[in-house]
Design a protein that fits this description.
CATH superfamily: MetI-like
Helix content: over 70%
CATH topology: MetI-like fold
Number of strands: 0
Radius of gyration: 25 Å
Order of helices and strands: HHHHHHHHHHH
Strand content: under 5%
Structural class: mainly alpha
Shape: flat
CATH architecture: Orthogonal Bundle
Distance between the termini: 31 Å
């Protein structure tokens, strides 16, 4: 009996090892063929000189990296406001009863409108339009209004993520809280919203990966961040290698966030499976 059990375990481990080996080998073969096709293409020498110049890469990479700190600052500031503002919109849209219909309608109109407007268009409208008004006490910095545009756009998306999390909390949770004497607002604050936020953390991280990439759009109205610095270096050298340097920096920043998202998704899946087995 014990020998049979050990044999089954060893057999399963060997099958898993074979599957992993096959996957690794097939992946290596695919990329080897891809590299071979690209490097044997007639225009590869010109593309290599235009995009993969090692000397220009060494010169431009530190400048692009320094400029990337502006992307990080924009990302951090926008993320704080998005998390708070989007939660307010989601809660307002979830208010029940006919008395709250106008508020729900406004929340729906907000999410529909700003999920429909391309991000770059709103950046241009606010970044150029608001400073041109010349209003007293209103910031005239294009960087400020471009950041506001990102906050507005991503709040609409994140509000829908929050709303999905709120609706995923079983109504019995709210009913139990109300039976203990909590008001509707207290139930949302202490029972429903905390559960909803925990459930939507992985999709929220996906949205923030997109936000980090979209900070590059701010370059189109003037601020010198990583993409804009790459444009400046490209104009100075007549070579596209600085764009590759900028792309590598963005990838190096977003890949850890992507792996964290995968880990949180897997942990959430295991918890759901464990809860299902326990029941």
């Amino acid at each position: 009996m014990e020998g049979d059990r050990r044999s089954r375990i060893l057999g399963g481990m060997s099958a898993d090892a074979r599957s992993v080996s096959i996957a690794l080998i097939s992946t290596a073969v695919f990329f080897a063929i891809l590299v071979l096709v690209i490097t044997r293409a007639p225009g590869w020498p010109e593309v290599k000189a235009a995009f993969f110049n090692p000397e220009i890469f060494r010169e431009s990479f530190p400048e692009v990296l320094r400029a990337f700190w502006l992307n990080i600052k924009i990302f951090c500031v926008a993320e704080v406001f998005i998390l708070a503002f989007a939660l307010v919109i989601a809660v307002l849209r979830s208010l029940p009863g006919p008395v709250f219909f106008p508020i729900r309608l406004l929340a729906i109109a907000y999410t529909d409108l700003f999920r429909g407007i391309p991000t770059i268009l709103l950046i241009f409208i606010l970044g150029f339009g608001v400073p041109a008004l010349g209003l007293a006490g209103v910031p005239t910095s294009a960087l400020v209004w471009a950041t506001v545009a990102l906050i507005i756009i991503y709040s609409a998306y994140v509000a829908e993520v929050y709303r999905a999390g709120i609706e995923s909390v079983h109504p019995s949770q709210d009913a139990a809280a109300r039976s203990l004497g909590l008001t509707r607002g207290q139930s949302l604050r202490h029972v429903v919203v905390p559960q909803a936020v925990r459930r939507v953390i992985p999709p929220l991280l996906n949205d923030f990966i997109g936000l980090q990439k979209d900070t590059a759009l701010i370059a189109l109205i003037g601020p010198v961040e990583a993409f804009r610095q790459a444009q400046i270096d490209t104009s100075a050298t007549f070579n596209f290698t600085p764009f590759v340097a900028a792309a590598l920096i963005f990838v190096a920043f977003t890949i850890p966030l992507a792996r964290l998202t995968d880990w949180l998704n897997e942990r959430s899946r295991r918890r759901r499976l464990a809860a299902g087995i326990a029941q």
